[in-house]
Amino acid sequence: RPRSHTVTTTSSSFTANLSASSSTLAYDREFLRTVLGLLVWTLIAGTEYFLYPAFGWVMFVAVFYWVLTVFFLIIYMTMTYTRIPQVPWTMVGLCFNGSAFVLYLIAAIVDASSVTKDLENHNYNSWAASSFFAFVVTFCYAGNTYFSFISWRSRTLQ
User: Fold this and answer.
1) Confidence band (pLDDT; 50, 70, 90) for 60?
2) Residues 6 or more apart from 30 whose CB is under 8 A from it?
3) DSSP classification of residue 123
4) Residue 17: in which H helix or E strand, if any?
5) What is the tens place of the pLDDT at every residue in 94-126?
6) Where's the MARVEL domain (predicted)?
7) Residue 72 CA to chain centroid, in angstroms?
8) Going by fewer Cβ within 10 Å, which terminus of the chain is more open, N or C?
């Protein structure tokens, strides 16, 4: 007697989520900001920055926002934000990016204005490079502030 077999196939939502999340990770602005912010503070940290109070401010801003950016990068990559829906993530992103833009702009200006080319000062190249990257990071945060504002605005209009 012939037996009938029923085969049931199911599709896992994990593979669909994995493919969707891997495509969104192709370009990650937070990773770019993390690397550039790391350059800013490591270029200064390798010098005698503690002799100049202005570079202490730049170090504070660079390290503070680098740590926060790494924190948000981990939250983004692990998709933890989907597990905490009570937090208004668009507002958090807007406040974070906006404050980072303002403080990094001030730090970049302070950094650039503090770079001097004294003959006895061998830190000139590191400080000049940190100044350049501080402005690059400032522009990254400015762009992210704009996109965060657009995202926040579209959510508040709904």
Assistant:
1) very high
2) 69, 72, 73, 76
3) T
4) helix 13-24
5) 999 999 999 999 999 999 998 887 746 678 888
6) 21-153
7) 7
8) N
Question: Is residue 62 packed enough to be buried (19+ CB in 10 Å), middle (13-18) or exposed (0-12)?
Answer: buried
Smallest CA-to-CA distance from 140 within 39, 56, 53, 71 is with 39
**Rg of the chain's alpha carbons, rounded to an integer?**
22
Q: Nearest Cα to 49, choosing from 130, 135, 133?
A: 130
CA dihedral 115, 128, 70, 151 (to 10 degrees): 90
- Per residue in 5-48, pLDDT (tens digit) is 554 443 333 333 333 333 343 345 666 777 788 888 888 888 88
pTM recorded for the entire structure: 0.74
Residue 48, amino acid = E
Q: How far apart are CA 119 and CA 80, in angstroms?
A: 51
Please tell me whether residue 100 adopts helix, strand or coil conformation: helix
